[in-house]
Each structure stands twice: as C-alpha cells, then as structure tokens.
Design a protein that fits this description.
The protein has 231 residues and is an alpha/beta fold. The protein is built from nine helices and nine strands. The strands form three sheets. It has a four-stranded antiparallel sheet. Strands 4-3-5 form a three-stranded parallel sheet, with helices on both faces.
Length: 231
C-alpha cells in the first residue's frame, strides 16, 4: 500500500458516509482534510433536478463570492481604442483585437476569463471552437459581452465566478481556499447557493436542489443535509 493510499484511507475515515452534515460542520471537516502541501480549494457539488440537454432546464450564471476565490484570475479582453484602454486601466492581463485573435488561434490562452465589447463578437465568434469547449466564450447573459469592460474586468478580478450545470445535472464550484476562515467559506457557500436557487429554470420539475456535498481538492465528499439549507 502506498503512502498516498494510506493518507486517502485516513481522510475517508473522517467522514461518515451515511450521515448528512450541517453546512458549518461539513466545511470544518473539509478544511481539516486539506492536508496537502498546497492550499487546497474547498469545493461544492450541487445535484439539481434538471436535465441540461433541454434548453429550458439549463442552469448557468455568475455570482460574486463576497470573500473572493483565493485565486488570481487572469482576464483577457477583446476591445479597441478607448475601451481597450479602459480594460487595461481596470487591470486586464491581456487586451487586443486581431492580434489577440491570432494568439488564441495559435493555441496560447493566457487568461481564465474572456470579456469582449459587442462590436468585437464578429471577431471573437471565430474562436468558438477554441473558447467554447473551455467555457470561456463571452456571453451577454454572463456580463462578459459588454461596453462596461472596466466594471466587468474588476468583477472578474474581485471574486465573480461562473457556474454551469454539467450533463449529469451537477454544478461543481470552488468557494475559496482551505486557508480561508470557516466564516468566509460559509459566506461564499451561501452566495453560491442563493444564486443557483434563484436561477431555477422554468423547465425544472419536482425537487430542484437534490443533493449537496462539500470537499477539499484531495479529500472525500461530505454530504450536506439539504433540509437544513432549504428549510
């Protein structure tokens, strides 16, 4: 048995698989299980009663985590002229037009979030096959296609994250780092949950929020009592 498997087994033993934990207890256990040499992310999995293959059951949006993400977010902006200057002043990491298009087409993506002014979407549209699969295509509904590029850059840098339901009806999202206080992680958890609940699509039938689990990057999932949250 390897050292890693011994460690993993020990972490699993900290969690009662049959128990539904309160949010605060689940966060505390997840923090305690973050024993790696790097600052692990505390992650949340939300199982929803939706089938995202149907357009009226897609759940997607943005939310600002009040205590930040703990990660440095690199922002790329497609803009020209004064709007390009505005993006740079707001802290964008890379700004451009045709020149940035060529860089991305060449396979080099030096950003985590992509923002564009509306007039640039004809250009950015050519990058659909590159940015689309990575979930980075600018979208008006997510506030990433906008004339207010300065505000969008600041939001992306200041803790705004995107969430999107996956094929199995699950949303995975980080809510901060293990080094965060439990209070800050709970604030971020509540913000994410509130946003997802408010984003309930019209096509959702039956129980919407079905299961919730919290974990650290390398730790086991800790099931949360949904009744405590929704009740």
């Amino acid at each position: 048995m390897t050292f890693q498997s011994k460690k993993a087994k020990k972490l699993v033993e900290t969690v009662d698989r049959l128990k539904l934990y309160g949010v605060d207890e689940a966060i505390a256990i997840a923090k305690g299980n973050a024993t790696s040499k790097f600052d692990e992310t505390i992650e949340v999995a939300l199982a929803l009663g939706v089938d995202p293959r149907h357009a009226d059951q897609m759940v997607r949006g943005v939310v600002t985590l009040p205590k930040g993400t703990g990660k440095t977010v690199r922002v790329g902006v497609f803009a020209r002229g004064p709007k390009a200057d505005e993006a740079r002043e707001a802290g964008a990491d890379i700004v451009g037009a045709e020149d940035l298009l060529e860089i991305v087409q060449g396979g080099k993506i030096d950003f985590d979030r992509c923002i564009a002014t509306p007039d640039m979407m004809g250009l950015v549209g050519r990058l659909g096959k590159v940015l689309g699969p990575k979930g980075m295509m600018p979208n008006p509904k997510l506030g990433t296609v906008t004339m207010n590029v300065g505000e969008a850059v600041k939001a992306a840098k200041g803790g705004q994250i995107e969430y999107r339901v996956e094929k199995a009806g699950i949303i995975h999202s980080g809510i901060g780092k293990a080094s965060f206080t439990a209070v800050d992680l709970r604030a971020n958890f509540d913000a994410l949950l509130d946003a997802v609940v408010k984003a309930k699509p019209t096509g959702a039938k039956g129980k919407y929020l079905q299961k919730v689990a919290v974990s650290s990057t390398m730790g086991p999932g800790i099931k949360v009592d949904v009744a405590e949250i929704t009740g």
